[in-house]
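Protein modeling request. Please complete all fields; requests missing the sequence field cannot be processed.
Requester role: graduate student
Desired output: 3D structure, token encoding
Chains: 1
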Amino acid sequence: MTSENRQALLDGFRDGTPIGLGYFVVAFSLGIIAKYVGLSPLQGFVISLLNNASAGEYAAFTVIGSDAPYLEIALLTLVANARYVLMSAVLSQKFSPDTPFYHRIFVGFDVTDEIFGIAIARGGRWLNPFYNYGAMLTALPGWSLGTACGIVAWNFFSPSAVSALSVALYGMFLAVIIPPARKDKVIGASVVASFALSWLAAEIFPDVSAGNRTIALTILIAGAAAILFPVKEDDDF
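Delivered output (237 residues):
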């Protein structure tokens, strides 16, 4: 490993540590749901290790509890996680053109809202994939262990007490988006618009899944910002 990759790995581990700790706490409530539908700690751990997504896992656990067929579980999880396709496409533009394909695949394995946020906010023209690997070293274990511990905690805490811990996710996400929003008025305005339009879309289109609403709003808001306030190619972002 080169010194540059080692430093990127350490930077990602440092920036990802708060995310991993937050995931551990938030995944407790997800573990409660997993226990409710009859999953063991090992099953919850493996599922969270392979599907690091709260909405996707919540949807999967819900249909698992209703004894849905495998195809329905796969399709529902795909729809709930569809927004990560857009995030992966954006991240791919941050990599140098000569970045090997396997790095793109491995980075795409764990694209979450928070990891996407710190990766996009990282300075420099190109994103080193080892930065994402460093963040994943804390995010994946934190999420997986949190789910498993939540299943075990079913026997010691009430569901309402454990689910109350999920507020940590919102604080963690705000910590990701506030610094760049304060530095750039366009980003700040886009964040405010996303909050307002997300609420409005939920009120107007309650039957549309949250994942599909997120995809539509991401394309709309990001597209409008790109057209109205384009970033020059030689800018350091």
